[in-house]
Design goal:
Helix 4 (225-244) crosses helix 9 and helix 5 packs across helix 8. A hairpin with a 4-residue loop joins strand 7 (124-132) and strand 8 (137-147). This protein is an alpha/beta fold. It folds into two domains: 8-87 and 223-414, 3-Layer(aba) Sandwich (Aminopeptidase), CATH 3.40.630; 89-206, Aminopeptidase i, Domain 2 (Roll), CATH 2.30.250.10. Strands 1, 2, 3, 4, 11, 12, 13, 14, 15, 16, 17 and 18 form a twelve-stranded mixed β-sheet that branches. A three-stranded antiparallel β-sheet has the order 5-6-9, with no helix packed on it. The N and C termini lie far apart (49 Å). It contains nine helices and 18 strands.
Length: 419
């Protein structure tokens, strides 16, 4: 018998993840979808005569999009969904071309809490962006088997994985070190001259496409699930809420650089978010007090992934796939009375939900939730999709959970901000 075909939302998620091989590509695909839905791209350097309806700004791996109902006053409260576009992976170093014993290799560094062993014996491509001398950038993606990190020697210290990712230097040919070879290959793919390239932010990715897994397709197995599942759901929720006519200003932000400690980079992104949202208030005729009132009425959901109960865990119970989004009780970020806002959204959407006493992988909340709470001073509800093998090159979650999260987030954005 043929297993029943999973839901259309899941098919669209797989399409999005496959396109989002890097944070830059994830944002590029999101902007295509926003434009198709009638959203307007605004320049942060230009004059905003009007910021009602659907608008967005995008730069690098970060996206900020919002929908302001026609006639929305300056102090109209904001309902915000936040996620992140980056994932732990291997990133190509500043001098990538290396060689040893007749092998052509690529020098890489770890980015975030990478499970290095999961990258072994995988067919890997390269994606990211090139920075040119004229100040522009070019996206580049080699989504074909180009590199492979072989199993280390059995007698290597710590299995060959204990001294950093350079012990993992993937091979991509024969002949030893050949300086500039990779750059010329990537420049050719981006249709620019290698001499015009000033720098790059390039990363490896698994070229195996996302897939449904299980006897009835009840799971999704893919790279970058954490956290493109939430980026896809947040974007879909914003578009759905805009069609249905929200009462609040609805917004979605996808941050970059969250897989490592956010630090100053995260703080600058929060400042950018605040600046963009404030300008949207001013473009609707609001002043300083209107902005302060809008922030005071803001409520956010930080969407991510969290560990599902492992099948070998000694614990008797925990979050399971396809049981609905997990609502984390993160002491550092949760305004507990406001958690009920998301629970009520789940109830209105007919979506089951699960509880958890941690946010993401951390007891003090996910990085996105902590960033919003500490830098903007707004209440944040930490929610996640439960999954296995998080931070591996290929992760797993329930195939129904992304759709359930999207429905819950849509109802959250549509809720009357006065209640």
């Amino acid at each position: 018998m043929t297993a029943p075909r999973p839901m259309r939302h899941g098919d669209d998620l797989l399409t999005y993840i496959e396109a989002g091989t890097s944070p830059y590509h994830a944002v590029e695909e999101a902007t295509v979808r926003l434009r198709a839905a009638g959203f307007r791209e605004l320049s942060e350097e230009g004059h905003w005569a009007d910021a009602t309806g659907g608008c967005f700004v995008a730069g690098g791996g970060t996206l900020i999009a919002w929908y302001a109902p026609p006639g929305a006053a300056g102090p109209t409260p904001i309902r915000l969904v936040a996620a992140n576009t980056d994932a732990p992976n291997l990133r190509i170093g500043p001098t990538p071309d290396a060689g040893a014993r007749g092998w052509q290799r690529i020098a890489v560094d770890t980015y975030g809490p990478v499970r290095l062993g999961s990258w072994l014996d995988r067919d890997l491509g390269v994606s990211g962006r090139l920075a040119l001398y004229d100040g522009t950038t070019r996206l580049v993606c080699l989504d074909s088997p180009l590199l492979r990190a072989p199993q280390p020697l059995p007698d290597a210290p710590d299995g060959g994985l204990g001294r950093g990712s350079r012990e993992l230097a993937p091979v991509w040919g024969l002949g030893g070190e050949d300086p500039g070879r990779l750059l010329y290959r990537l420049a050719s793919e981006a249709e620019v001259h290698a001499d015009d390239v000033l720098g790059w932010d390039l990363m490896l990715h698994d070229v195996q496409p996302p897939a449904f897994l299980g006897d009835a397709g009840e799971f999704v197995a893919s790279a970058r699930l954490n956290n493109l599942v939430s980026v896809h759901s947040g974007l879909a929720a914003l578009l759905s809420a805009a069609e249905r006519g929200p009462r609040a200003v609805t917004a979605f932000v996808a941050f970059d650089r969250m897989a490592v400690h956010p630090g100053e980079a995260g703080g600058s992104q929060c400042l950018r978010l605040a600046r963009v949202l404030r300008r949207s208030v001013e473009a609707r005729g609001g002043g300083r007090e209107d902005w302060q009132r809008a922030v005071a009425g803001t409520l956010a959901v930080a969407a991510g992934m969290t560990d599902a109960l492992h099948p070998d865990s000694p614990e008797p119970c925990g979050p399971l796939p396809n049981g609905g989004p997990v609502v984390a009780d993160s002491t550092a970020t949760a305004d507990r009375p406001r958690v009920a806002d998301f629970v009520r959204a789940c109830q209105r959407a007919g979506v089951p939900w699960q509880s958890c006493d941690r946010g993401g992988d951390l007891p003090d909340g996910s990085p996105v939730a902590r960033l919003l709470a500490s830098r903007l001073g707004i209440p944040v509800i930490d929610v996640g999709v439960p999954g296995l093998s998080l931070n591996s090159v290929r992760e797993l979650c329930g195939s129904h959970d992304p759709r359930l999260l999207t429905r819950a987030l849509t109802e959250f954005l549509l809720a009357d901000p006065a209640h």
